[in-house]
Amino acid sequence: MKNKYTYLVIAFLAIMTMNSCKKDSFNPTPENVPIILEPVVPPQDLPDSNLVMGNPSSATSDVNNFNNFLLKEGYYTVSYDRDRAIPNWVSWHLTASDLGTTPRQDDFRSNNNLPDGWYHVENFSYNGGGFDRGHMCPSADRTSTVAANSSTFLMTNIIPQAPVNNQVTWATLEDYARSLVGQGNELYTICGSYGVGGSGNAGPFDNINNGQVTVPSMLWKVIVVLPNGGDDLSRVSNSTRVISVIMPNTNTVNSNWRTLRTTVDAIEAATGYDVLSKVDPAIQAVIEARVDNL
Ligand code: MN
Ligand code: MN
Questions:
Q1: Following DSSP, what letter does each residue of 102-123 receive, concatenated?
Q2: Active-site residue among 93, 133, 135, 178?
Protein backbone atom coordinates (compact mmCIF):
# COMPACT_ATOMS: atom_id res chain seq x y z
CA MET A 1 0.00 0.00 0.00
CA LYS A 2 2.85 2.36 0.85
CA ASN A 3 4.29 1.87 -2.64
CA LYS A 4 0.94 2.61 -4.26
CA TYR A 5 0.66 5.91 -2.36
CA THR A 6 4.25 6.79 -3.21
CA TYR A 7 3.45 6.35 -6.90
CA LEU A 8 0.34 8.52 -6.52
CA VAL A 9 2.40 11.28 -4.94
CA ILE A 10 5.07 10.98 -7.68
CA ALA A 11 2.37 11.12 -10.37
CA PHE A 12 0.85 14.18 -8.69
CA LEU A 13 4.23 15.96 -8.57
CA ALA A 14 4.93 15.01 -12.18
CA ILE A 15 1.60 16.44 -13.34
CA MET A 16 2.18 19.63 -11.33
CA THR A 17 5.65 20.00 -12.87
CA MET A 18 4.37 19.36 -16.38
CA ASN A 19 1.61 21.91 -15.95
CA SER A 20 3.89 24.60 -14.57
CA CYS A 21 6.42 23.98 -17.39
CA LYS A 22 3.65 24.16 -19.94
CA LYS A 23 2.46 27.47 -18.52
CA ASP A 24 5.95 28.99 -18.36
CA SER A 25 7.47 27.70 -21.57
CA PHE A 26 4.73 27.11 -24.08
CA ASN A 27 1.74 29.13 -22.99
CA PRO A 28 2.69 32.77 -22.39
CA THR A 29 -0.97 33.87 -22.59
CA PRO A 30 -2.19 34.65 -19.07
CA GLU A 31 -4.98 32.34 -18.09
CA ASN A 32 -7.18 32.46 -15.05
CA VAL A 33 -8.51 28.94 -15.27
CA PRO A 34 -7.31 27.07 -12.19
CA ILE A 35 -5.86 23.61 -12.61
CA ILE A 36 -8.27 21.12 -11.10
CA LEU A 37 -6.71 17.88 -9.96
CA GLU A 38 -8.37 14.85 -8.44
CA PRO A 39 -7.57 14.60 -4.74
CA VAL A 40 -4.45 12.44 -4.34
CA VAL A 41 -5.16 11.54 -0.74
CA PRO A 42 -7.13 8.30 -0.64
CA PRO A 43 -10.10 7.97 1.70
CA GLN A 44 -9.40 6.06 4.89
CA ASP A 45 -12.56 4.09 4.26
CA LEU A 46 -14.40 2.31 1.47
CA PRO A 47 -15.32 4.76 -1.34
CA ASP A 48 -19.03 4.95 -0.63
CA SER A 49 -19.03 4.29 3.09
CA ASN A 50 -20.17 7.85 3.81
CA LEU A 51 -23.40 7.25 1.91
CA VAL A 52 -24.25 3.78 3.21
CA MET A 53 -27.56 5.10 4.59
CA GLY A 54 -28.38 6.87 1.32
CA ASN A 55 -28.06 10.12 -0.63
CA PRO A 56 -30.88 12.21 0.91
CA SER A 57 -31.36 14.60 -2.02
CA SER A 58 -30.10 12.39 -4.87
CA ALA A 59 -27.19 14.80 -5.30
CA THR A 60 -25.09 14.32 -8.44
CA SER A 61 -21.71 15.56 -9.65
CA ASP A 62 -23.30 17.12 -12.75
CA VAL A 63 -22.25 20.81 -12.91
CA ASN A 64 -25.76 21.71 -14.06
CA ASN A 65 -27.08 20.37 -10.76
CA PHE A 66 -25.71 23.48 -9.05
CA ASN A 67 -28.15 23.50 -6.14
CA ASN A 68 -27.54 19.85 -5.26
CA PHE A 69 -23.96 19.19 -6.31
CA LEU A 70 -22.27 16.05 -4.99
CA LEU A 71 -18.76 16.50 -3.58
CA LYS A 72 -17.03 13.31 -2.49
CA GLU A 73 -14.20 14.38 -0.22
CA GLY A 74 -13.33 10.83 0.80
CA TYR A 75 -13.49 11.60 4.50
CA TYR A 76 -17.11 12.76 4.11
CA THR A 77 -19.60 13.46 1.31
CA VAL A 78 -21.38 16.76 0.61
CA SER A 79 -24.39 18.06 -1.26
CA TYR A 80 -23.42 21.66 -2.06
CA ASP A 81 -25.59 24.59 -3.15
CA ARG A 82 -23.66 26.96 -5.42
CA ASP A 83 -26.11 29.83 -4.94
CA ARG A 84 -26.34 29.59 -1.15
CA ALA A 85 -22.57 28.88 -1.08
CA ILE A 86 -23.07 26.43 1.78
CA PRO A 87 -23.63 22.67 1.94
CA ASN A 88 -27.19 21.35 1.91
CA TRP A 89 -26.04 18.34 3.89
CA VAL A 90 -22.90 16.43 4.79
CA SER A 91 -22.78 12.69 5.50
CA TRP A 92 -20.04 10.60 7.11
CA HIS A 93 -19.23 7.35 8.87
CA LEU A 94 -17.50 7.51 12.24
CA THR A 95 -15.65 4.62 13.82
CA ALA A 96 -13.01 4.36 16.53
CA SER A 97 -10.30 4.23 13.84
CA ASP A 98 -11.20 7.81 12.80
CA LEU A 99 -10.34 9.10 16.26
CA GLY A 100 -6.62 9.66 16.79
CA THR A 101 -4.26 12.27 18.11
CA THR A 102 -3.89 14.60 15.12
CA PRO A 103 -4.25 18.20 16.31
CA ARG A 104 -6.80 20.57 14.82
CA GLN A 105 -5.25 21.90 11.60
CA ASP A 106 -7.38 25.09 11.39
CA ASP A 107 -6.53 25.46 7.69
CA PHE A 108 -9.88 26.85 6.53
CA ARG A 109 -9.70 27.28 2.75
CA SER A 110 -11.75 27.34 -0.44
CA ASN A 111 -12.45 24.07 -2.23
CA ASN A 112 -10.69 23.79 -5.58
CA ASN A 113 -12.84 20.81 -6.50
CA LEU A 114 -15.78 23.14 -7.18
CA PRO A 115 -16.47 23.61 -10.90
CA ASP A 116 -14.80 26.44 -12.79
CA GLY A 117 -16.60 29.74 -12.55
CA TRP A 118 -18.45 28.96 -9.33
CA TYR A 119 -18.16 31.40 -6.45
CA HIS A 120 -15.54 30.07 -4.01
CA VAL A 121 -16.03 30.82 -0.31
CA GLU A 122 -12.63 31.73 1.12
CA ASN A 123 -11.23 31.32 4.61
CA PHE A 124 -11.91 35.01 5.29
CA SER A 125 -15.38 35.21 3.73
CA TYR A 126 -17.20 35.06 7.09
CA ASN A 127 -15.16 37.87 8.65
CA GLY A 128 -17.21 40.51 10.41
CA GLY A 129 -20.54 38.75 9.99
CA GLY A 130 -20.89 37.66 13.60
CA PHE A 131 -21.06 33.97 12.72
CA ASP A 132 -18.64 31.13 13.35
CA ARG A 133 -17.27 29.00 10.54
CA GLY A 134 -19.32 26.04 11.72
CA HIS A 135 -18.26 22.56 10.69
CA MET A 136 -20.78 20.03 9.46
CA CYS A 137 -18.37 17.04 9.63
CA PRO A 138 -16.50 18.07 12.80
CA SER A 139 -12.74 18.49 12.94
CA ALA A 140 -12.71 16.27 16.04
CA ASP A 141 -14.35 13.39 14.13
CA ARG A 142 -11.36 13.27 11.76
CA THR A 143 -8.19 13.06 13.82
CA SER A 144 -6.58 9.89 12.43
CA THR A 145 -4.28 11.77 10.03
CA VAL A 146 -3.40 15.35 9.06
CA ALA A 147 -5.08 14.83 5.66
CA ALA A 148 -8.30 13.63 7.29
CA ASN A 149 -8.44 16.54 9.73
CA SER A 150 -7.45 19.12 7.12
CA SER A 151 -10.24 17.96 4.81
CA THR A 152 -12.86 19.15 7.32
CA PHE A 153 -11.62 22.74 6.93
CA LEU A 154 -12.69 23.05 3.30
CA MET A 155 -15.27 25.84 3.25
CA THR A 156 -17.71 23.51 1.47
CA ASN A 157 -18.05 21.70 4.84
CA ILE A 158 -18.84 24.96 6.66
CA ILE A 159 -21.92 27.11 7.34
CA PRO A 160 -22.30 30.52 9.04
CA GLN A 161 -23.36 29.27 12.47
CA ALA A 162 -24.43 31.35 15.45
CA PRO A 163 -21.53 31.10 17.93
CA VAL A 164 -23.61 29.86 20.89
CA ASN A 165 -25.25 27.25 18.67
CA ASN A 166 -21.86 26.12 17.35
CA GLN A 167 -19.85 26.23 20.56
CA VAL A 168 -22.48 25.03 23.03
CA THR A 169 -25.52 23.11 21.75
CA TRP A 170 -24.11 21.69 18.50
CA ALA A 171 -20.68 21.02 20.05
CA THR A 172 -22.20 19.18 23.02
CA LEU A 173 -24.08 16.87 20.67
CA GLU A 174 -20.87 16.28 18.69
CA ASP A 175 -19.05 15.39 21.92
CA TYR A 176 -21.87 13.10 23.01
CA ALA A 177 -21.77 11.30 19.63
CA ARG A 178 -18.03 10.67 19.99
CA SER A 179 -18.62 9.31 23.48
CA LEU A 180 -20.91 6.69 21.93
CA VAL A 181 -18.01 5.62 19.68
CA GLY A 182 -15.90 5.26 22.82
CA GLN A 183 -18.57 2.87 24.12
CA GLY A 184 -18.24 0.44 21.19
CA ASN A 185 -20.51 1.99 18.58
CA GLU A 186 -20.05 3.23 15.03
CA LEU A 187 -22.13 6.11 13.71
CA TYR A 188 -23.63 7.29 10.46
CA THR A 189 -24.33 11.01 10.65
CA ILE A 190 -26.15 13.18 8.15
CA CYS A 191 -26.55 16.86 8.96
CA GLY A 192 -27.34 20.08 7.21
CA SER A 193 -29.26 23.31 7.26
CA TYR A 194 -32.21 24.98 5.61
CA GLY A 195 -34.10 28.26 5.52
CA VAL A 196 -32.79 31.81 5.45
CA GLY A 197 -31.81 34.07 8.36
CA GLY A 198 -29.89 33.44 11.55
CA SER A 199 -28.74 35.59 14.44
CA GLY A 200 -25.15 35.65 15.63
CA ASN A 201 -22.94 38.08 17.55
CA ALA A 202 -23.71 40.98 15.18
CA GLY A 203 -27.48 40.41 15.17
CA PRO A 204 -29.77 38.94 12.54
CA PHE A 205 -28.61 38.44 8.97
CA ASP A 206 -30.03 36.66 5.92
CA ASN A 207 -26.60 36.55 4.29
CA ILE A 208 -22.99 37.61 4.75
CA ASN A 209 -20.03 38.49 2.53
CA ASN A 210 -21.99 41.02 0.42
CA GLY A 211 -24.82 38.59 -0.14
CA GLN A 212 -22.63 35.78 -1.41
CA VAL A 213 -23.20 33.37 1.51
CA THR A 214 -26.68 32.52 2.78
CA VAL A 215 -27.13 32.31 6.55
CA PRO A 216 -29.46 29.35 7.16
CA SER A 217 -32.22 29.64 9.75
CA MET A 218 -32.20 26.03 10.98
CA LEU A 219 -29.70 23.23 11.47
CA TRP A 220 -30.56 19.53 11.60
CA LYS A 221 -28.71 16.33 12.35
CA VAL A 222 -29.49 12.62 12.21
CA ILE A 223 -27.20 10.11 13.94
CA VAL A 224 -27.65 6.36 13.40
CA VAL A 225 -26.03 4.41 16.24
CA LEU A 226 -24.88 0.85 15.56
CA PRO A 227 -22.79 -1.44 17.75
CA ASN A 228 -19.46 -2.09 16.00
CA GLY A 229 -19.82 -4.72 13.29
CA GLY A 230 -19.94 -5.41 9.57
CA ASP A 231 -22.58 -5.13 6.85
CA ASP A 232 -23.94 -2.00 8.52
CA LEU A 233 -27.00 -1.28 6.39
CA SER A 234 -28.41 -4.76 6.99
CA ARG A 235 -28.04 -4.31 10.74
CA VAL A 236 -30.37 -1.30 10.91
CA SER A 237 -33.56 -2.57 12.53
CA ASN A 238 -36.71 -1.29 14.20
CA SER A 239 -34.77 -1.04 17.46
CA THR A 240 -31.82 0.94 16.07
CA ARG A 241 -31.19 4.13 17.99
CA VAL A 242 -31.53 7.25 15.83
CA ILE A 243 -30.86 10.69 17.33
CA SER A 244 -32.45 13.56 15.40
CA VAL A 245 -32.42 17.26 16.20
CA ILE A 246 -33.54 20.51 14.61
CA MET A 247 -32.17 23.70 16.12
CA PRO A 248 -32.44 27.40 15.27
CA ASN A 249 -29.31 29.17 14.04
CA THR A 250 -29.32 31.68 16.88
CA ASN A 251 -27.40 32.60 19.99
CA THR A 252 -30.55 32.11 22.05
CA VAL A 253 -30.83 28.43 21.14
CA ASN A 254 -31.46 26.13 24.10
CA SER A 255 -28.08 24.97 25.37
CA ASN A 256 -29.31 21.39 25.90
CA TRP A 257 -29.53 19.48 22.60
CA ARG A 258 -31.79 16.89 24.26
CA THR A 259 -34.60 19.46 24.40
CA LEU A 260 -34.33 19.90 20.61
CA ARG A 261 -34.82 16.27 19.65
CA THR A 262 -37.31 15.49 16.93
CA THR A 263 -38.04 12.83 14.32
CA VAL A 264 -36.38 12.08 11.01
CA ASP A 265 -39.87 12.48 9.57
CA ALA A 266 -39.94 16.10 10.77
CA ILE A 267 -36.56 16.76 9.13
CA GLU A 268 -37.76 15.15 5.90
CA ALA A 269 -40.92 17.29 5.96
CA ALA A 270 -38.87 20.46 6.47
CA THR A 271 -36.23 19.70 3.83
CA GLY A 272 -37.98 17.52 1.26
CA TYR A 273 -35.15 14.97 1.56
CA ASP A 274 -35.38 11.24 2.08
CA VAL A 275 -32.93 10.62 4.90
CA LEU A 276 -31.85 6.97 5.42
CA SER A 277 -33.25 6.20 1.96
CA LYS A 278 -31.22 2.97 1.65
CA VAL A 279 -32.82 1.54 4.79
CA ASP A 280 -35.73 -0.83 4.22
CA PRO A 281 -38.88 1.36 3.94
CA ALA A 282 -40.73 -0.62 6.62
CA ILE A 283 -37.84 0.00 9.04
CA GLN A 284 -37.60 3.67 8.01
CA ALA A 285 -41.27 4.04 8.88
CA VAL A 286 -40.56 2.94 12.45
CA ILE A 287 -37.22 4.56 13.25
CA GLU A 288 -37.99 7.83 11.46
CA ALA A 289 -41.16 8.39 13.51
CA ARG A 290 -39.50 7.91 16.90
CA VAL A 291 -38.00 10.64 19.08
CA ASP A 292 -34.86 9.54 20.89
CA ASN A 293 -35.27 9.67 24.69
CA LEU A 294 -32.09 8.17 26.14
MN1 MN B 1 -18.57 23.38 15.29
MN1 MN C 1 -36.24 8.37 4.98
A1: PPP----B--TTSPTTS----T
A2: 135
